[in-house]
Amino acid sequence: MNEEVEIILEDTEDKMERTIRHLDNELSKIRAGRANIHMLDGIMVNYYGTPTPLAQIANVNSPDPRTLAIQPWEKNMIDPIEKSIMAANLGMTPVNNGEVIRINIPMLTEDRRRDLVKKVKIEGENARVGIRNNRRDGNDQLKKLIKEGLAEDTEKDAEKTVQEMTDKYIKIVDDRLIVKEKDIMTI
Questions:
Q1: Which residues is 69 bridged to in the sheet?
Q2: What's the rounded Cα separation, in Å, for the pair 73 and 124?
Q3: Quick one: pLDDT at residue 138?
Q4: What residues does each domain of the chain span?
Q5: Which of 61, 99, 116, 123 is 20 to 30 A off residue 185, Cα-Cα?
């Protein structure tokens, strides 16, 4: 029976890890006033009739802290890339010189910074809810094992372990949010 408990605990921790990875991915898309190539991760470009991620048809880099440069591997893809960036409504205007698309990252206003901090807090709360849901699912699985003959003491110990995992991952979320908020509010 203890083997089943271990499997449940490992599965629960794995799900919490995935929640943290998802949070990191979402936070990387929120700009902090500096150019970050991950700002363009969600952009899909019509590549010969197929929606394709921008990173698969062009080189995206940041030559300086205020600029993104996108160099397509095929010159005829410049216009579709530019249209996709405009359609993504990122609040940035691409400049096309025929070979490279440049995006100048404007300075963030105080209001925009506050809006971004709110967005970060929403992402953090979503991550916390996901971790709590993982805790609930793990505890529910443990309760089912009691009906199958697991000792109540073993189940209580496992629930305590799940709670410790939950506390650990909630702290990780809080720490990441503090870092991101500081990053956004720093001029």
A1: 61, 102
A2: 37
A3: 93
A4: 2-29+109-185, 37-104
A5: 61
Residue 22: predicted pLDDT: 94
13 sits in the region (left: phi over 0; alpha: psi -120 to 50; else beta) called alpha
Helix (H) / strand (E) element for 108: namely: none
Q: What pLDDT, on a 0 to 100 scale, did the predictor assign at position 168?
A: 95
Task: Compute the distance between CA of residue 95 and CA of residue 104 in angstroms, rounded to an integer.
Answer: 8
> Under CATH, domain 2-29+109-185 is a member of which superfamily?
Ribosome-recycling factor (1.10.132.20)
What is the C-alpha separation between 43 and 85, in angstroms, rounded? 7
- Structure tokens that stand for 70 in this block: 């996108």
The total number of residues shown for the chain amounts to 187
Beta-carbon neighbour count of residue 80 at 10 Å? Answer: 17
For the chain, which residues score pLDDT lower than 50? none
At the top level of CATH, which class does the domain 37-104 belong to? alpha beta
Model pLDDT for residues 91-139, shown as the tens digit of each residue: 778 888 888 999 888 777 888 888 889 999 999 999 999 999 999 999 9
Cβ-proximal residues to 3 (8 Å cutoff; 6+ apart), any chain? none
> Are 178 and 124 spatial neighbours (Cβ–Cβ below 8 Å)?
no
